[in-house]
Structure formats: structure tokens, C-alpha cells
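ok trying again, last paste got cut off:
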Amino acid sequence: MTIRKKISRVEARNMNPLTLAFIGDGVFELYVRERVVLLNKDLKPNDLHKNAINYVKASRQSFIIEKLEDSLTEEEIYIYKRGRNMKSNTVPKNANMLDYRRSSGYEALVGYLYLIGSIKRLDEIIMMSLEIIENRKED
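nice, full thing came through this time. structure:
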């Protein structure tokens, strides 16, 4: 998955972190949907959707970034923290504020890597993320 024209790191760093999170949410969702379909080819769409939710909800993304933080570069931590610290006017009804902020930071990082065209690193982070969720002990 790539975009036709990447933007510069400087341009991406200067974007509103919630804008980065907006694109990152869509990018992560697409990776998750692909993974769920490839692992469960015979499921009906509604069951695929239920399966995908286990990856994309705020509490799971918060858990992912907590486990990934030591694997991030200084630049990636900077982007994550900008997204995490950005104030938002909404919080999903099924998420606490801390999980929501961490998940926004995670999505901002994903969006940033996607927009600058760092697809190899994006793939690495998302594959680690998927493995973290898949290896997680259920609550």
C-alpha cells in the first residue's frame, strides 16, 4: 500500500497531530482488515468486522503503543507524543481518556509514516502491533 506522492518529514511534522491520526486510523484499519480476512477467509462480513474491532479499539492501540515505545526512534516518539498530547473535543464512549490519548498518538505515528512514504518502517510497526495483539492474553 503506497501513496502516489509522499510529503516531506518537515511538512508532516508541521501537520495537526489529529490530522495525522485521522489518516493513521484509516491506514491501520486497512492493515487489520487485510490480516483478518487472510486469517479467516470463510467468515461472513459481520464476523470479520467483529474480529477487526479487537485490533482497532482504543484500549488495544493503547496496549500496542505501551509495548512498542522502546522500539521507536526519537522521531517516532516525538510524533507519538504530539498525537497523544493533542486535546480533542471528543472521547469515544467505550474508551477512557488515557487509552484514547495513547491511541491517538499511535494513529498519528501510523499516519506520519504513511504520509512520508516510510512504508518499510510502517510495515514493521504494524506487523509488531498485530503480533502484540494476537499474542496478548485476554482480559
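cool. Helices lie at 9-13, 17-39, 45-56, 58-68, 74-85, 97-115, 119-135. The radius of gyration is 15 Å.
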